[in-house]
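User: Thanks for the earlier help. One more: Multidrug-efflux transporter. Can you show the sequence and predicted structure together?

Assistant: Of course, both are below.
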Amino acid sequence: MSAQIPTSTSPMPITRHLRAILTLGLPLVGSNLAQMMLNVTDTVMVGWYGIEALAALVLGSSFFFSLFMLGNGIALAVMGRVSASLGADDEVQARRDTRMGIWLSILYGIAVLPVTWYSGAILQLLGQEPQIASLAQDYLRILGFALAPALAMMVLRSYLSAQERTQVLLWITLAGIGVNIGLNWLFIFGNWGFPELGVRGAAIASLTVACLSLVAQAIYAARAPGLTHIELFARFWRPDWEAFWLVLKMGVPVGLTSVAEGSMFQASALMMGWIGTVELAAHGIALQITSIAFMVHVGLSNAATVRAGRAHGARNPRLLRDGALAVIGLSLAYGLATVALFVTLGGPLTALFLDRANPASAQIIASGVSFLMVGAVFQLFDLMQVMALGLLRGVQDTRVPMWMAVLSYWLVGIPASYALAFPLGFGGVGLWFGLVLGLACAGALMMRRFWRGPWLRQTPSRTAI
């Protein structure tokens, strides 16, 4: 719901900023963590099934994630655009952008199906072992069909977030975790007479959860009190080319920004595969752990997008600036806590993903501990870039941050990871330090971009968002 705010000459108390951010952001943090737990349950349960299956899941998930993040730029663009439209009291534009965002997500999901279907050959060309690449392809041939519903779900998630209806997202995602665990138990291990499908069973579970979650969010968006008058799906089949191109124009740079970062982590998985299967499995586990912690920052970043979008739409630069300081402070405080956690509990955290009876588990745990020590450092830089991106999306600035991401991740992060891991001989730990350098570059450039932008100097015209 919209809230009355002070004018730019009458600042909002910091406590009100924090309360507004937490009210909006905590359910988003919870839903992001719950979404991440869907991936974690896959990793844990496939890890119990076998090391080769786990390595295939790591490769397949990284491959799928790159495709997903490109398409998810549409959803993130919708969040910024709808928030600004609501800040300007324009519900019609909010509806138009959301509907065309769903169109674009479905079209993209269909277009990239051949990439997931023939992923095995692509992975082998990238230097992966044929057996692991084949297993990853089995996984992706099923999971590829989840891309369109998953991206459409993310567009609705952005719409509901901009409407500040975030609690329902948390409950739907939590329900999805239960369904995912149950289906994994049936299809990965072949319980209750179901076929034992291993990594393919995890893909079937994920596809089912994506479809069910999309249906649940669509029903709520269409029928929830206070939203029905928007008629989100009325004449949904009719194109709105103006909104279509506006969302696409903003969404493509957002997606490419995400791909630039995601491809750095994808490249790290590929390079870790060159080092060995044990190191790749440890890398996947360590990334899962850091990603779980990172979901809090993502939730706060989404809240920053909504609040910044509403302040920008209302032309209130003081609210924008003070809100940005508040959300960055919250993210930094949490980031320091995760540093302490990774440094002190790296071993037990890694062991949660493994069967201790497996002979390779001790080696994987040792490598995972080393990776998490470095991960403690890159959490701080990672939070700076994701918070800056959230704020920049709120003010609908996406093109320049895209180029900053390409520079930071492709020209700094990936080359540094390769150089430290192989020519300089630091192996997996060196590879992770390369990730730190890429994230540090991105964080510095994007924060500078936001704080020097014209949106902090615009003339106030409204007093409410």
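User: Great, one quick takeaway?

Assistant: Residues 14-453 form one domain.
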